Each structure stands twice: as C-alpha cells, then as structure tokens.
C-alpha cells in the first residue's frame, strides 16, 4: 500500500522535515504544500532543502511525493482578469517547484465560477491549463474532485472530463479522487464504490486517477459541504475507506490522508496520522482513536 498524509513544510528543515515527520508516522508517501495553503508566498527552490529530503526518501524506500497547490488560486474566475493571470503565473512556478521536489502529482482545486456559471469557468480553467502545461514538465497536474461548495466546478466526472478534453497536452493531467468530496458531491462511495469506479472509468478512465485523498466526511452524501472527518468517525466509515485503500486497481496510486488534527481538553492539537495509517495497514478500527491520539 502506498500511503501517507499531508505534512507541513516549514521552519529551517523545510522538505527534510516533511520527510522526517512522514517516516515517524510510518508512511511511504507524503503530500506537502510548498508554502501556506492560504497564501502564495513561497521560498526559493534552493532554500527548500530538497537534496537532503530526497536522500532520506531514498534511504527509507519512499514511493511517492505529492504537492498540493494553494486553494486560493482560481483559474475559473472570469470576472477578474488579474486573478486569472496571477493564477497562471503562480502555477507555472509551482510546476517548477514540484518538479524540483521530484513530485509525481500537483493537486489542484480546478476553480470556481463565482457567478458566471460552470461552462464559463471550465472554459477559463482549460485556457489557463493550456498556458501552464508544457510537454517538458514531469509532474502531472491532478484535478481534484470537488464537493460542490459555493460555486466550485469539477463536482462531477463530466465536468472534469470536459476540462481534460480541452487541454492540448492532457497527458500531463490526472485526477485526484477525494473520498470526502465525492461523497459530499453525491457519489455513494460508502455503499457502491465499485459502481462509482465503473462510472468514472466510462467517463474519464481509471488510468487517469493519479492520487487519492482518503478522508472521512462530517456530512451526509450530497451535502456539498466539504468537511473532513477522522477515519471511521464520519458518514463514510472505516470499512469503506479501508476497502478503497486496498482497491486492487489502485495498488500503485498514492493514498493521502487529510483528516483533521484532534484537540485535547486544553485545546492542544495532536496529529492523527501515525495511528490512522496503522489502522489502514492492520485493517483494525480503533473506536477509541481520539483518546489514543491525545494520550499517545
């Protein structure tokens, strides 16, 4: 199983620290933002401590590195040309950072139409990706399945395929399948995952799935809320998520956890990833996970 979680890249250690944290968690894959997800301030590539991090990855036989673009860039905004232009220029540089890190996937929230309608946003996203993508880049841009919060697009497989079809070098595109988002968008990943995969295969093709975000959901199917929950404590449940993690067609696809950190009675936050990864590996659900995380 190729499995890991979102880990931070900050402080003096940067990428080296991200790798060290992932090793402590028992992962063999990881996902990072190259800076804070809420802004677009980024350090120079030479300051990211990539060679040291890559050496440690090799030493511990890591299988994959995934980068997530900040979710504030919006290629779908047709009302503000300056926002579109900024998103294009930022993502061009993000591709360079992802390639320098040796990432296989650069996860991207495709965008939101902010009132112009999905078709206008999809046309704008397609135009932006055609300006960003080059045949020479190594990393694939993974279009994330979205929950449908606000005016998000890519909330169904048809919209994602519409974007892919419009991109010239779409061999450089993949899909990030988020279990919470697809649940909240109205796909029954809990009870009928095989059927959902058949539908995806017919519309897009399973070979396009480059990364899976393995998250439980705080909300019911079709809620369009996008609120992640710890594995087994949401409406999807551990049994379904364990099945998805072990789905035979995804053996070589990295599965990344983005579940929330847990607060203790003193409001101190604790990472759940070491225990959640252990649950997925063993197939055993800890119904006292929260207490274990706090007391670990």
From TrEMBL:
Domain Xylose isomerase-like TIM barrel: 24-281
InterPro entries (alphabetical): AP_endonuc_2, AP_endonuc_F2_Zn_BS, Xyl_isomerase-like_sf, Xyl_isomerase-like_TIM-brl
UniProt-annotated binding residues for Zn(2+) 3: 181, 226, 228
Any Gene Ontology biological process: base-excision repair
Keyword Coiled coil applies: no
Pfam families for this protein: AP_endonuc_2
Cofactor(s) recorded in Swiss-Prot or TrEMBL: Zn(2+)
Enzymatic reactions: Endonucleolytic cleavage to 5'-phosphooligonucleotide end-products
Keyword vocabulary terms for this entry: DNA damage, DNA repair, Endonuclease, Hydrolase, Metal-binding, Nuclease, Zinc
Entries under CDD domains matching the protein: AP2Ec (cd00019)
EC supergroup of this enzyme: hydrolase
Binding site for Zn(2+) 2: 144, 178, 213, 258
Function: Endonuclease IV plays a role in DNA repair. It cleaves phosphodiester bonds at apurinic or apyrimidinic (AP) sites, generating a 3'-hydroxyl group and a 5'-terminal sugar phosphate.
Stated family: Belongs to the AP endonuclease 2 family.
Identification of the protein by name: Probable endonuclease 4
């Amino acid at each position: 199983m190729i499995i890991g979680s979102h880990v931070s890249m900050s402080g003096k250690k940067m990428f080296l620290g991200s790798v060290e944290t992932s090793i402590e968690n028992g992962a063999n894959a990881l996902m990072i933002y190259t800076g804070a997800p809420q802004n677009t301030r980024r350090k120079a590539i030479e300051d990211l401590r990539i060679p040291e991090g890559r050496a440690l990855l090799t030493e511990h036989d890591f299988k994959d590195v995934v980068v997530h673009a900040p979710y504030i860039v919006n290629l779908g905004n047709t009302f503000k040309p300056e926002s579109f232009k900024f998103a294009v220029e930022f993502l061009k540089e993000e591709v360079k950072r992802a390639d320098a890190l040796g990432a296989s996937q650069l996860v991207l929230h495709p965008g939101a139409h902010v009132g112009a309608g999905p078709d206008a946003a999809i046309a704008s996203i397609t135009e932006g990706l055609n300006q960003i993508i080059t045949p020479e880049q190594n990393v694939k841009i993974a279009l994330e399945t979205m929950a449908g919060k606000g005016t998000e697009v890519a909330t169904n497989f048809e919209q994602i395929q519409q974007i892919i079809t419009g991109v010239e070098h779409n061999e450089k595109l993949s899909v990030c399948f988020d279990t919470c988002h697809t649940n909240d968008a109205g796909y029954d990943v809990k009870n009928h995952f095989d059927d959902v995969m058949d539908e995806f295969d017919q519309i897009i093709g399973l070979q396009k799935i480059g990364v899976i975000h393995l998250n439980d959901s705080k909300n019911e199917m079709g809620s369009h809320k996008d609120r992640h929950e710890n594995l087994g404590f949401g409406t999807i449940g551990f049994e379904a998520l364990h099945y998805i993690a072990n789905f035979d067609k995804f053996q070589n696809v990295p599965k990344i956890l983005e579940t929330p950190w847990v607060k203790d009675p003193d409001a101190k936050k604790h990472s759940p990833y070491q225990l959640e990864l252990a649950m997925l590996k063993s197939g055993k659900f800890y119904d006292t996970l929260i207490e274990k995380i706090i007391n670990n």
